[in-house]
Amino acid sequence: MFEKFFAFIGIGSTQVDLQLDQNKLTMGQTASGSLHLLGGNVSQER
């Protein structure tokens, strides 16, 4: 019961980390980098 509540407020939920290769981008420039996903403790759908 508490797991879903904690996931709702961000504790134990899935973590997403986007790391871009460039510090600055201009409009129209292509961004490149990596996306890291870390699964949480509770099944989530959004």
TrEMBL record:
It holds the Pfam family Spo0M. InterPro entries: Spore_0_M. This is Sporulation protein. It comes from Shimazuella alba.
